[in-house]
């Protein structure tokens, strides 16, 4: 049986042999020494510290300003709130006077002549309940204002 | 008074309990109105009852007791509200508040803002 003649080139090393394997470590390029890096680090940190301190001082100033504004305006706002509250109570009293004038035994500000608090001075203030605040309004108004936080 | 009552003191005031632990003061206010708006009235009532005793206290401390219960439960104020609402509805049904198809039952919802219409309309007051 005749073997066919085929041109076969076997993979062989190049003439002269392979190059030597490069097993030497190639270190990364060094831009600066460790001492320089530490110096730069310290410089950056100190600069950032100064910048941060400057911003913190500014922030403290803003906070003090805002707090001063709050402390200056809160008494006025609270007084206005109390004023509106007292106005509503006065209006309620007038409406009660007008409404209950025909009811026998009724005295304004009392429960058929019974004082709300017996042992307290007459001029001493006591807050009224929410139901009494909305006494001349619809009950839906009362419910709306009591449940308003649920809509938020 | 604590868990165990010793003999009553000469001053007649409440004594410190025999068994004390760090939680004694923390849980001492449970069941009382200390720290609320009614603490003064409760204290008046308790002082009166302590001085008068339970039997005479029913007569002498009646107003203190009623004030304390009013502060706690507010039945008097709530009955006032109910009576006023009932009276208003009665007058509304009778037609005393005006004849017409749409007479409101309420006298208006209170506008409780300092810069609202309520404040602007009543500047002369």
From TrEMBL, chain A:
Main location: mitochondrion
Superkingdom of origin: Eukaryota
InterPro entries in alphabetical order: GRIM-19
Leader sequence segment: none
Keyword set includes Kinase: no
Lipid bilayer topology: Single-pass membrane protein
GO cellular component, one term: mitochondrial inner membrane
Assembly behavior: Complex I is composed of 45 different subunits. Interacts with CARD15, but not with CARD4. Interacts with STAT3, but not with STAT1, STAT2 and STAT5A. Interacts with OLFM4.
Its job: Complex I functions in the transfer of electrons from NADH to the respiratory chain. Accessory subunit of the mitochondrial membrane respiratory chain NADH dehydrogenase (Complex I), that is believed not to be involved in catalysis. Accessory subunit of the mitochondrial membrane respiratory chain NADH dehydrogenase (Complex I), that is believed not to be involved in catalysis. Complex I functions in the transfer of electrons from NADH to the respiratory chain. The immediate electron acceptor for the enzyme is believed to be ubiquinone. Involved in the interferon/all-trans-retinoic acid (IFN/RA) induced cell death. This apoptotic activity is inhibited by interaction with viral IRF1. Prevents the transactivation of STAT3 target genes.
The protein, known as: NADH dehydrogenase [ubiquinone] 1 alpha subcomplex subunit 13
Provenance organism: Allacma fusca
From TrEMBL, chain B:
S-S bridge residues: 38-71, 48-61
InterPro entries given in the database record: NADH_UbQ_OxRdtase_FeS-su5
Membrane topology of this protein: Peripheral membrane protein
Keyword line: Disulfide bond, Electron transport, Membrane, Mitochondrion, Mitochondrion inner membrane, Respiratory chain, Transport
Region (Disordered) location: 96-125
The UniProt record lists the keyword Mitochondrion: yes
Location of this chain's protein in the cell: Mitochondrion inner membrane; Mitochondrion intermembrane space
Main location (coarse class): mitochondrion
Keyword NAD carried by entry: no
GO cellular component: mitochondrial inner membrane; mitochondrial intermembrane space
Pfam families: Ndufs5 (PF10200)
Recorded superkingdom: Eukaryota
Leader sequence residues: none
Family: Belongs to the complex I NDUFS5 subunit family.
Biological role stated in the UniProt entry: Accessory subunit of the mitochondrial membrane respiratory chain NADH dehydrogenase (Complex I), that is believed not to be involved in catalysis. Complex I functions in the transfer of electrons from NADH to the respiratory chain. The immediate electron acceptor for the enzyme is believed to be ubiquinone.
Protein name per UniProt: NADH dehydrogenase [ubiquinone] iron-sulfur protein 5
Organism expressing this protein natively: Allacma fusca
């Amino acid at each position: 049986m005749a073997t066919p003649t085929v041109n076969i080139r076997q993979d062989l090393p190049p003439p002269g042999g392979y190059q030597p394997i490069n097993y030497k470590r190639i270190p990364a390029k060094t831009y600066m020494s460790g001492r320089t890096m530490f110096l730069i680090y310290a410089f950056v940190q100190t600069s950032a510290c100064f910048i941060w301190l400057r911003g913190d001082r500014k922030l403290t100033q803003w906070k003090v300003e805002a707090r001063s504004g709050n402390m200056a305006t809160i008494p006025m706002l609270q007084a206005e709130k109390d004023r509106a509250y007292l106005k509503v109570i006065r209006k309620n009293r007038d409406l009660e006077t007008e409404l209950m004038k025909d009811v026998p035994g009724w005295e304004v500000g009392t429960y058929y002549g019974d004082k709300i608090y017996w042992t307290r001075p007459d001029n001493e203030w006591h807050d009224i309940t929410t139901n009494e605040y909305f006494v001349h309004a619809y009950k839906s108004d009362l419910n709306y204002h009591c449940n308003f936080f649920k809509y938020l | 008074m604590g868990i165990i009552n010793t003999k009553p003191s000469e001053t007649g005031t409440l004594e410190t309990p025999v068994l004390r632990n760090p939680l004694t003061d923390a849980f001492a206010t449970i069941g009382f109105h200390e720290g609320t708006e009614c603490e003064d009235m409760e204290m008046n009532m308790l002082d009166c009852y302590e001085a008068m005793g339970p039997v005479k206290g029913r007569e002498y401390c009646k107003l203190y007791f009623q004030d304390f219960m009013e502060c706690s439960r507010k039945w008097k104020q709530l009955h006032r509200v109910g009576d006023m609402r009932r009276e208003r509805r009665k007058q509304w049904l009778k037609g005393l508040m005006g004849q017409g198809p749409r007479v409101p039952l309420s006298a208006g919802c209170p506008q409780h803002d300092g810069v609202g219409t309520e404040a602007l309309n009543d500047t002369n007051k």
